[in-house]
Design a protein that fits this description.
The chain has 15 helices and eleven strands. By secondary structure, it is an alpha/beta fold. Helix 2 packs across helix 11 and helix 12 crosses helix 13.
């Protein structure tokens, strides 16, 4: 299959100080929006924020098959596809979402800053990793001060995993902070393939595209960085929605569970739905979706480890516990 990758031209000044920016950004957002947020939801309506990627596949199935509407015909389900976790958090703060899906670290940063939401469910595990040109780097210390590593944003799960890996190797979690630039996954892949960056910490399908290219390899995996299995994407729900809509909340989780089971039991139809939704070749999508390491379930793994690491390294200001962030 022919693939056309657009070269992404990087401008100077893209470096960011991740921890300071993430904390400052969330503080400003909360200060501005919390004083004028709308009502969280209206009775009989649920608004769900999703993102693009294979790790969110059950949400696409849930939407296309109308599993929640099947359980609750009177309910209005509004779906909003957003570009990143910052947009999800802003939408929740402004009262435009009741539920959103993202990695554990950005959820924890928002919770730490006062967002009144908790984890309702896990969604997926998936391979993550730092992809680099083949035979170029043997460890993280090989990156020079001029090297560039692309990842989605400060406080993302990719960023936190990279700091974990850096600490494991050098004892300094901020070892590569000055090497980082913020790019969306498609732009990060294009930048890596064009040679504009030296590494890309990413997730499927971009990780698979890059690693299947003979000119690239994975330098460190997410599991290696974490030191244990972890949930990639979780689903969070506002406390207001949880308290005011207990029956709808339970049906929402039941519909999600049905969507996850559908992916396992109806593979052909799943591929048909997702290939159209993601504009991907059916054979490639099928191979990626069911590749080893892609797991869809509602369990939440690695939460305690993320809380501990992020608290000790200053990404969280308050003392969070597993029980305080889970419904």
């Amino acid at each position: 299959m022919n693939r056309v990758y657009l070269c992404y031209k990087l401008t100077k000044g893209c470096y960011f100080k991740l921890k300071k920016i993430s904390i400052l950004l969330m503080t400003v957002i909360l200060a501005v929006v919390s004083s004028c947020s709308k009502q969280n939801s209206e009775d009989g309506t649920i608004r769900i924020g999703e993102q693009y990627g294979l790790a969110y596949a059950p949400l696409q199935i849930m939407k296309e098959k109308a599993f929640l509407e099947e359980l609750r015909p009177e309910v209005t389900v509004d779906w909003l596809k957003l570009g990143n976790t910052t947009a999800i958090r802003e939408a929740v703060l402004s009262g435009d979402l009741d539920a959103g899906f993202m990695g554990i670290p950005p959820f924890l940063i928002a919770r730490d800053k006062g967002m009144e939401w908790k984890i309702a469910t896990g969604l997926s595990r998936a391979p993550l990793g730092l992809v680099v040109p083949v035979n170029t780097y043997s460890n993280l210390s090989d990156f020079s001060k001029n090297s560039r590593i692309a990842l989605p944003q400060p406080g993302s799960i990719q960023h936190i995993l990279l700091t974990m890996a850096a600490e494991r190797e050098s004892g300094d979690p901020a070892m590569l902070d000055k090497n980082l630039i913020s790019l969306k996954h498609p732009d990060g892949m294009n930048a890596l393939l064009s040679g504009s960056v030296d590494g890309h910490f990413t997730s499927p399908p971009y990780l698979f595209y890059e690693n299947d290219n003979k000119d690239f390899e994975i330098l460190v995996t997410g599991d290696e960085a974490m030191g244990e299995p972890f949930t990639f994407i979780i689903g969070a729900v506002t406390e207001k929605f949880y308290n005011e809509n207990p029956e709808l909340y339970n049906d929402y989780l039941a519909a999600l569970e049905k969507s996850i089971n559908f992916i396992d039991t109806h593979r052909k139809e799943t591929v048909e739905i997702l290939s159209k939704a993601y504009s991907m070749d059916k054979d490639i999508l099928s191979e990626f979706l069911y590749r080893p390491g892609m797991e869809f379930n509602t369990s939440v793994k690695g939460l305690e480890r993320f809380i501990s690491f992020m608290g000790e390294r200053g990404y969280l200001e308050n003392e969070l516990t597993v029980d305080s962030v889970l419904f």
